[in-house]
Amino acid sequence: MTEWDTEEWTSGAKHLLEWVSTVNSEQPVMLMVRHSHREKLHNHHDTMNTGLTDLGKRLSREMGYRIPTVRKAHIFLSVVPRCYETAEAISEGFIHQGGEVIDMDSLPTLIGPEYSDRDVWQNLNSNGENVTEFVNMWADDEFEGIEPFSKFGVRLMDDTVKRLLSVKDNMMHIHVTHDLALMCTKRILLDRPLTHDDREPYLSGLGISLKDEIPTLFVASTQDRVILTDF
Fold first, then answer.
1. What mean pLDDT do residues 180-202 have?
2. E strands, the chain, where?
3. Would you say 85 and 52 are in contact if contact means Cβ atoms under 8 Å apart?
């Protein structure tokens, strides 16, 4: 057995790959995934500078190798090292299998919101254990010194879901991001407060497919499918 088989945190990634393999190859799809296995974070400075472990790099490459190559891929990423390294390794694996990556672009929204007071991050554990609680409190306007959740949400949806809606062929968009942006996306699309169980493991996340211009959300951790009627 390989590391891909034995590491428990790859379960969500496996569900995501199983799902994307069932989507009609003529339809565009979007994957939004959390970065791969990283070094432990100790403070806010670490959150902006820490990269992947060797295990994280290997399994990112393995995931890329397992993504179906029936579509060309456009990869979007946070420029923080662990996301860039994840995106780069996924690209390497995908290309090695015969896939084509047309471009890799950074997106500021995949890093997180704008802020004017660094102290706001004292409310978020460095390793993200309370990220779902943080997002709920932010969405309820309980923090100052940070971009309003509603404003950030508009930018995030424009850069991800609405970008997919503008695609005219069977392109695959892959967004590599952090806990925070991923949980914001989940809160917006599911239209409810988050619970601790909503947090996705490494390389897991969300998928969106389009059929007759109607998006359907796939949640990897629960394997739930939700038709998105607000787009």
1. 97
2. 29-34, 73-77, 101-106, 172-177, 205-211, 214-219, 224-227
3. yes
What's 88's domain CATH number? 3.40.50.1240
Residue 12 and residue 223: Cα distance in Å, rounded?
A: 9
User: Who has greater pLDDT, 81 or 48?
Assistant: 81
How far apart, in whole angstroms, are the C-alpha atoms of residue 178 and residue 80? 9
**What is the count of structural domains for the chain?**
1
Residue 24 identity (one-letter amino acid):
N
Q: CA angle 176-223-207, nearest 5°?
A: 30
CA–CA dist 61, 89 (Å, integer): 4
Is pLDDT larger for residue 26 or for residue 127?
A: 26
**Average pLDDT value for residue range 122-146:** 94
Range of the domain at 47: 3-227
